[in-house]
């Protein structure tokens, strides 16, 4: 596994719009990013409202000016570009978008993903919604990567497992749990446990 991660770190990113076979060497990921495994932010954070999104009140005009792909209050479709198997139950998923734009996600933030899951009594589509944290660099343009463990009973992870290159996933965000600005604190300590990260400042 360690050897695989070293190979991944040395590899070149998939070009935007490229259609290649899924392989382990297709993804470019810093080793430290693997620690930020997707599926990360707590279910309770968004279960009270599936439309809950925290941002710095980014308007449509700001999004155009900043060349950001995410829209805080709208579901946006992103195309699956490629996949790579990391282990027997964990896969990398690369989604592509306009190569001139960044995703618009800060560190310690996450996105919401949704997929159709049946219909309600009024025959309107129901959705399963889950938060994930991309592990690609926040400055990357034209793509973002998700590292997802597929659970036997996981509705969203099973949906991801069924996707093929070219399929679309609806995404909304960002959800910001903490926005760091340079030099805001003298010392920062981090304790990672599972999918949660505890930040201590001084």
From TrEMBL:
The keyword ATP-binding appears for this protein: no
PROSITE patterns: FAD_FR
InterPro entries found in the cross-reference section: CBR-like, Cbr1-like_FAD-bd_dom, FAD-bd_FR_type, Riboflavin_synthase-like_b-brl
Entry EC number(s): 1.6.2.2
Keyword Flavoprotein attributed: yes
Keywords, comma-separated and alphabetical: FAD, Flavoprotein, Mitochondrion, NAD, Oxidoreductase
Compartments, record wording: Mitochondrion
Cofactor dependence: FAD
Domain of life of the organism encoding this protein: Eukaryota
GO molecular function, one term: cytochrome-b5 reductase activity, acting on NADH
Enzyme class: oxidoreductase
GO cellular component terms listed in the entry, alphabetical order: mitochondrion
Residues annotated as domain FAD-binding FR-type: 73-181
Protein family: Belongs to the flavoprotein pyridine nucleotide cytochrome reductase family.
Protein name: cytochrome-b5 reductase
Organism lineage string: Eukaryota, Viridiplantae, Streptophyta, Embryophyta, Tracheophyta
């Amino acid at each position: 596994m360690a050897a695989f991660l070293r190979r991944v770190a040395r590899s070149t990113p998939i070009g935007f719009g490229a259609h290649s076979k899924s392989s382990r060497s297709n993804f470019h990921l810093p080793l430290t990013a693997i620690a930020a495994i997707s599926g990360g932010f707590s279910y309770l954070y968004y279960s009270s409202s599936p439309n809950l999104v925290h941002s710095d009140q980014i308007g449509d005009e700001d999004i155009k000016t900043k060349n950001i792909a995410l829209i805080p209050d709208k579901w946006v479709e992103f195309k699956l570009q490629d996949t790579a198997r990391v282990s027997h139950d964990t896969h990398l998923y690369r989604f592509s978008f306009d190569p001139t734009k960044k995703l618009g996600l800060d560190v310690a933030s996450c996105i919401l993903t949704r997929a159709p899951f049946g219909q309600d009594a009024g025959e309107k589509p129901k959705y399963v919604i889950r938060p994930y944290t991309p592990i690609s660099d926040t400055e990357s343009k034209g793509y973002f990567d998700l590292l997802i463990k597929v659970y036997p009973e996981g509705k969203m992870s099973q949906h991801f497992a069924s996707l093929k290159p070219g399929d679309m996933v609806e995404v909304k965000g960002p959800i910001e749990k903490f926005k760091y600005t340079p030099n805001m604190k003298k010392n920062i300590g981090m304790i990672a446990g599972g999918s949660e990260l505890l930040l201590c400042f001084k």
